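Hi,

I'm pasting everything inline rather than attaching a file, because the server keeps stripping attachments. The sequence lines come first, and each chain or strand is labelled.
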Amino acid sequence: MGRSARIGVLVASLVAIVAAVVLAFVFAQDGKRDPVPNPDLVTVRALVGSEKAPLLHDQAVIDALAAQGLQLQIDTAGSRSMMAANPDSYDLFFPASAPVADQLTSAIPGARAIPAFQTPLVVLTFSDIKDVLEANGLVSTDAAGTPVFDVAAYLDALAKDTRWNSLTDNTAYPSSKTVMVTTTDPLRSNSGLMFTALTGYVANGGKVLSSTAQVQQVAPRIRTAFVDQGYKQSSTEGPFEDYLALGKQKTPLLLAYESQLLSRQLAQSAAVTDQMVALYPEPGMFSQHVVVARTENGVRVGELLTQDPALTAAVARYGFHPQSDPGAFATALTETGVSTPPAVTNAVEPPGYTVLDSLAAAVSPDPSVPVEEPTPSTATTTVAGGKQ
Amino acid sequence: MRSVWFSLVRAPFVLVTLLITALALTGCTLGQDPDGTGTGGAGGENGGDQATTLRVIAGSELDDMQPILDEAASATGVTVQLTPMGSLEASELVAGGGAAGSYDALWISSDRYLALTDGGAEKVVAAEKIMSSPVVVGVREAAAQRLGWSAEKPPSWGDIAAAVEARKFGYAMTNPSTSNSGFSALVAVASALAGGGGALDEARTAAVMPQLATFFTGQKRTSGSTGWLTDSFVEDESVDGLISYESSLLALQASGRAGPLVLLAPSDGVVSGDYPFALLSDAPAEKRESFDRLTAWLRTPETQQKIMEQTHRRPMVAGVTLTDELARTQVIELPFPATRPAMDNLLAGYFTTARRPASTIYVLDVSGSMAGDRIEALRSAFTHLTTPRSTGDYTAFLPREQVTLLPFSSDVQTPIEFTVPAKNTDATLAEIRTRVEGLQPAGRTALFEAMAEAYRLAGEKVAADPNSYVTVVVMTDGQANGAGPERFTQAHQALRGEAATVPAFAIMFGDSSNSDLEAIAATTGGRVFDGREDLTGAFRVIRGYQ
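And the predicted assembly:
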């Protein structure tokens, strides 16, 4: 009994570790799955962040790559899993943050990093809640008219266990809940991980965290922002869908990518209402999407994604800012009449991968999560290429 | 097409899964069937292996989706076979690999249970949230008026607890270890009474136990299944409220069975289900297209509108305007515990500290026909009830619980009474087991004499400790051949106060007479369970009603 119980705990914790790093619920949005690969095209295998699956499954992307004789076969994974994957299995990796890309580039012999596009972090809310936060010093409007979310003020409010119904002039959200930004699980999803970097920067006195020792110092100040949320979803699309469908009920404040709301606006989705507002955090931070190419075919895809006009146009339509082709972004906006989002000029860099990873572990409610031990992983498999 | 890498990486998972399954088989039970009907695998059914058939483990409350699913079959060509199962049980089955080969998808109220169960997260390859329903409080209109509560101006959970403490409000709520609506309510009320700040962890859960205990003194009825609880609420007008899914309560409202109800989403928040339809990683690859087609259809605005109108659930696709009955209620979502230990800790607190201690009178047939395998089956059942198991399984007798054995054959024997202590329960549990092992079958079946005696005892128990939750369980393997049923019905009619509402749960066994047992269930507002195939299973399921 004692022995089998110990084995049970061992196995259970093993599974828990694996489970923690594996992308759990891929919320499919595009409905295009497992098309038959085209034997006439060269298959390029890619391990990508799940947020880019809809883009990479877009028919325009498939067609543009096929015109160059290529088709993508993608698996999706969070950054922890991506670090642990066997590099020989892929032609390219496509993480959603620069630290992960840097780490992959240095870990994989001969790898080449090709920055492709980016999108800033935003805090999504509703206009009446924005007004309440503005009246209480958590949001301000800058000279350009952009609503700015004050991360330092937010951490202070959390430290004081500020409740929605203790805010002045709040009829918009009369709840006794703590004023809290919903994020994904930093161990399994990049957007949640980015918010550990952002809050960690502020808690570190406005400096990029540079060591795990500093992480331990700032952890008490930022831990509440993650642990007190309770259960967190594992894919950035999950809580964003709640925001769109259920609104304030579940997510009065949501950490998201600008591209998520923007892509819905660009697609003229009925889900977006004029009550929905993106707040821009101070300081800001970008989610950088970098192709880490291991093979020649990987490099070809990376270069096409940054140079082929059809591909940069598709990238822009999904709300991302193509790094080598800013004009594509402006064109996508003009074509649909969506107003130009504010220029983010206050962005700070996330810390290096090791520090970032230890941040995720430091804010986990599960004490069994290892701080610096990426573990083997799996991911869902999808194929893009050929006729849909 | 699946990549080679995918299958290579899966190999270690198969090993881990096998280990987990082996452990589960040797040590653990998988929880209970919420309806006591047996889960009956869908695996062997015709068409289960066709690409256009999805075999789905589903929350039992989703039986109201059948008309929508019938329409889906003609619209998409995808047939869905639902097998009802409790959320925790289903999550453990899937996480442990036990669903592989039998089921393609999981459709329960939330992804949280699977994600927080060891090994569960990677068992899902894709999921689509279909609809949402919060767990709220349905209150009879007269009671709501008396208490000054309305949908527009709902009470907080604290206000409800205060009404309970003042003995002005009593309610029915399902068992939180076997029913998701019960667990959701437990999370909501515990979070709210803990102050409504962060998610429940060990410290917050421990601190809120005294307030929770007060709140649960108002729990007048509990059950492993929503269906029985609803019937019981309809019949017993002394129970003011029913805590359940908004969708179930609105359906009850529409049926008119319970008279007008006021639906209250407590102002400090609730916990909702959002029903992700999840494709399992073990499902055959060719099911993927069916999954995509079905979920895309379920998420069209037209279908979402139908789901909302027919099942009273909230749409999960933006742009569908809420019906008036849904728009009336302002819902605020409370955080859910972040880890499985935090969930288990809350459940353990409920069962060992917060809930009303159960007091059960077991009326046990030890007539001559019970000799041999039958008495052995009874002994096995009590071995189960007296053996505490892993977290999440609360079917063994619990601290503070009273257990009364009332064996009968030609005569009714002297009752044997036990109280399980708050701590160090082993000796008492062993003693109960020993007493059942010592029962010797002989004589005839004085069933109704025994039932009359059981209700005399029930009256004593209620009077001695009004906070104990008294129920009767009766197991018989033959026809009553002593006094007739009137012996019991007359004794029952003479009961007054809470004793009159004590339900009797009757277990069919051997050659028992269904009509005798149905009569007992009807007289007491109880229910009949079939123990002929699995006596231990019947005793376990009834634990959800105690």
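Chain A touches chain B through 69 residues (CB under 8 Å).

If the labels don't parse on your end, tell me and I'll reformat.
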